[in-house]
Amino acid sequence: MKPRKLSHLWPQLLSLLPLGxxxxxxxxxxxxxxxxxxxxxxxxxTASDMSTNQQVSLSALALSGEPAPVRWSVExxxxxxxxxxxxxxxxxxxTPPNALSxxxxxxxxxxxxxxxxxxxxxxxxxxxxxxxxxxxPEVATLSLRSSLRASxxxxxxxxxxxxxxxxxxxxxxxxxxxxxxxTANNCEHFDQQYTTCTVTYTAxxxxxxxxxxxxxxxVNGTQTIASxxxxxxxxxxNSTPAAHQAVQGKHALLGSSGxxxxxxxxxxxxxxxxxxxxxxxxxxxxxxxxxAGQKFILSNNHVFAESDQAxxxxxxxxxxxxxxxxxPLSDASTRLHAVGRLRAYLPLSARSTNVDAALxxxxxxxxxxxxxxxxxxxxxxxxxxxAPPMTGExxxxxPDNFDMPVVxxxxxxxxxxxxxxxxxxxxxxxxxxxCAETQPYGAKIFHGQIAIEGADFTDSGDSGALVxxxxxxxAIGMYFAGGTNGDGKTLSLVNPIHDVLSELGGAVGSPxxxxxxxxxxxxxxxxxxxxxGRQTPVIPEIWRRRxxxxxxxxxxxxxxxxxxxxxxxGAAAGASLDERGKPALILYVSAAHSNMPVxxxxxxxxxxxxxSTPAAIAQGKAPRxxxxxxxxxxxxxxxxxARQIAQRYTGQLMHDPAILGVGVAQSLDHPSEAALLxxxxxxxxPRHQPTTLDGLRVRYLHLQRFHVTRERSQQRPAPSSCxxxxxxxxxxxxxx
Length: 736
What we know:
Layout: E1 4-6, E2 23-24, E3 30-32, H1 36-39, E4 41-45, E5 49-51, E6 54-62, E7 70-77, E8 87-88, E9 93-95, E10 105-113, E11 120-128, E12 139-143, E13 147-157, E14 162-167, E15 181-188, E16 194-202, E17 213-219, E18 225-233, H2 242-245, E19 256-260, E20 264-268, E21 274-280, E22 282-284, E23 286-289, E24 295-299, H3 301-304, E25 315-318, E26 337-345, E27 358-362, E28 379-380, E29 383-384, E30 405-410, E31 414-432, E32 440-453, E33 466-469, E34 474-484, E35 490-496, H4 497-508, E36 513-514, H5 541-551, H6 554-562, E37 568-575, E38 583-590, E39 601-602, E40 605-612, H7 614-618, H8 636-654, E41 659-666, E42 674-681, E43 692-693, E44 696-703, E45 718-719
Parallel strand pairs: 1-45, 2-6, 5-11, 12-18, 38-40, 42-44
Antiparallel strand pairs: 1-21, 3-4, 4-6, 6-9, 7-10, 8-9, 10-11, 13-16, 14-17, 15-16, 17-18, 19-22, 19-25, 20-21, 23-24, 23-36, 24-27, 25-26, 26-27, 28-29, 30-31, 30-33, 31-32, 31-41, 32-35, 33-34, 34-35, 37-38, 39-40, 41-42, 43-44
């Protein structure tokens, strides 16, 4: 994904922001009914107190409880006039203003009956500043006693502050003892820019007892917080995304920020003056060359070619606009420099293309000719050196290497590692003509893709990053999109490198290969976690009763008679991991029979297999859920069987608008078996949710729609660090 960056605070820009950008505040109903006796109706709200990162849903109800037909309006507020009071849709969805002029703003929203506008009811909404984007850095790795500078931008203008603290958990509720120190807290205030606060964090002298240190930022001391995850080590390793976002100068290294110089949205005032509203960018992924030895920069179509909206020959910048205050090369004050020109891209609109990829020619001396990528090398003086990947066409994915550790070096999250979680993935990704994602371009279904789970493996701005086998620096693909379930579980989508090179080679009329070294080398792995956390499942009483009925069933008794004596050590009620919110029958199996065939379903309930011992069962120490697999472990035969079923059902499943993708993964209920992975959009219910298909378990993962521009957190992206009003409208071209 590539991030977008807001460049100026104008109230009219609210019209550019999609409603889906913000999450609805609260989950319950809050009644508010002034003047009910006079108006004959009242207003309910999902919340009356919110941050600028949220929306609130208002409803007008007659005294009978039926919806009242009303016209909504934002009547007044005490925010600065230049910043506006927000807006409300005809359906009663209120969106706060982009920025606030004080710590707390009150806005009055009115509903008037359509049949009699003189009958109206008002509600007061209290709004406080939120965060413009995640903390910078989002993730980092520090050695003992080392320091980093962190920053937070809040949606307040001319005032506001951030309270910094340390915690052993991301919620800020854990212990702060022994986690290090915070110094040099400072906030900068501007009249027409968001408030930016910074702090210096210094790691402790000894390793903390917690697995990570979380740097917590609270806006004006409220409950609106953001966190940065910092791993502490005692072997001298320091890694942050700062170098990836910085100006590289001549011979720029790959894995750094970059993008199309025209990749911004514009806004024109009623007076006819144009401004840059926001901008996008991504990662300069790798260096490739053709048969004649001509070299190109590799990245995504949506990074270099603006999702098909660019023109061949467009300038490619380093860093990208979002790291240069949205100031393009046409302005003399820009900190960006040109590194190449758009040479070719694979149209996303074409059915014949199956990757999101583009190439840029290289300006003389602009890019390191060895193809070195930031942080892929060995450790020197606490810093990972740049190093090239393996030259060639990359590594072929096969069952015997599915469990490889994978690594990427990208603009936003820097160097991160994880494992492959699914292959043969058909997935739907939505593209837009603009950075704000207000102008849909189309949805494209990619086939045969790679999926990687892992908290903080990627985020917006890492688009175009090369994904490699960390054992030998062989490329396996290129990152292009990501999604989340909103609770720490993320999924990164990767185009297979063979497809990328093959299709781009056809576009330039010559075979392509990666520029790099002929000597395999291991890459340091930094794992920031899988996300979601492992929790003891809660088993409702109704599930326990259901499992008791299964244990009493004829089908279960017949199963026990068929299996070897001593193979089943016990059974219990559990929670399915393949289909959240459904019960599972836990079967405790002895290690000697761990590969024994087990029915996928018994008496209509999913089975869950856990290897244990008689002693653990007797002492009540048996696990309550299977251990999550570390990587993808599938035999050639199970892969072949799962692939056949995926090919048989993918088309049918993908016709369901609730389903985002279908692929081959590992069952979490029985990790030694394959599963058909079905990606379901959060908040939607598929027409059919089979438990099994043709003898294969079906696993469901609920995710928000995949994005290539917005952060996975769905929060508003970063603004620029300075006003761009001095740029003359005639000096640059708005997007089509």
